[in-house]
Amino acid sequence: MDSSDWDRRYAEQPRPFGAVPNATLVAELVALSPGRAVDLACGDGRHAAWLAARGWQVEAIDFSPVAIADAEREWDATGDTVRWLVGDALTWEPGERVDLVLIAYLQTDQLPLVLERARTWLRPAGRVVYLGHARDNLAYGVGGPRSPEVLPTVASLATALDGMEMLSLRHVVRATPAGDAYDVLAVARELPA
Question: What global pTM score does this model have?
């Protein structure tokens, strides 16, 4: 899907993923001390807004102008703690190093490249947190993309984040109204130089 497809989706169904942050991400991030974060492929901003409410300074990027406009309207209480930006995950660059790069449900065959680039944005001990539909979802779960090339595996995430300290790398079963969905979570910390 390109940005115009997502523009249509957000225009036709505002807040398609709800206003509540993903519970798996909340559990992984809640204990972290606030700092600077990037929410890459932020959609309409639920995770960026949650981080901002916890004291983070966030750059929230999505390639859908409609999603970013929705986020600015919905989460205007974030004030200057979130910068809402239209940008492509494959080319965008942050202005300075960050403590956290959050990537939630970015499903692309270019994910290894995105993760490689995200690692370069981190301060020492900074973290990359990825959560998305797993390839196992094709066989066992519901929802999500049906193209295996855009669905990561535990092994593909381990390869993409090789050289970082892996704090968590696992499948997550997520209950949905249509049945269980199978996600994959990777949390990796940059090692000191």
Answer: 0.91
12-21: long-range pairs with CB below 8 Å, 24+: 14/44, 14/70, 15/44, 15/70, 15/74, 16/44, 17/43, 17/44, 17/46, 17/105, 18/46, 19/46, 19/74, 20/46, 21/46, 21/47, 21/50
**What total of structural domains would you count in the chain?**
1
Which residues of 1-149 form beta strands (DSSP E)? 36-40, 57-62, 82-86, 98-104, 122-133
- The arithmetic mean of pLDDT across residues 102-110, rounded, is 96
Query: What domain range includes position 22?
Result: 3-189
pLDDT tens sequence across 140-155: 999 999 999 999 999 9
Report the alpha-carbon distance of residue 172 to residue 131 in Å, rounded: 9
